Fold this sequence. Notes:
Blueprint: E1 2-3, E2 8-9, E3 12-17, H1 28-45, E4 48-55, E5 58-64, H2 71-94, E6 105-109, H3 114-128
Helix pairs in contact: 1-2
Amino acid sequence: MKTTRHATYNLNYHIVWLPKYRNAVLTGEVADRVESILHEIADEKGLDIQNLTVQPDHVHLFVSSPPKHSPSLLANWFKGISSRKYNHRHADHDGEKIRWTRGYYAGTAGHVSSESVENYINRHKEAEA
C-alpha cells in the first residue's frame, strides 16, 4: 500500500502499446534506449514501474500510480514523452524515429483483501477517536 496526503492506495495498471504500423523496431539498442526513457518518465512523474518489457513490436508496462492519474493520462505520458525524448536524442544519429500507434490497452491489476479493507477502516476509526 502507498499513501499520499489524502489517500491510501494500491493502483496498478497494465498498459500495452505498439509502434506505428506494428513494425518490429524495438530491438537491441533501440529497445534499451526506450526502456531507459520509460524509467526516466516514471521517475519524473513519481510513478513506480513494477515491470517493463520492451518487445520488438510492442511495450508491456506494469506501473503503480496515485489515484489522481487516470490510465489514459499515464498512457499518454509514456507514449508521448518517450517518443519526443527518443526522437530528440537519437533520431538524428540513427535516422529512425519512434512513432507509436494512437491506441493502447489499459487494464487494472491488484488485489484487495478483506483484511486490508478492515485495517484501513480501523486506522481511520482510531484517528477520529
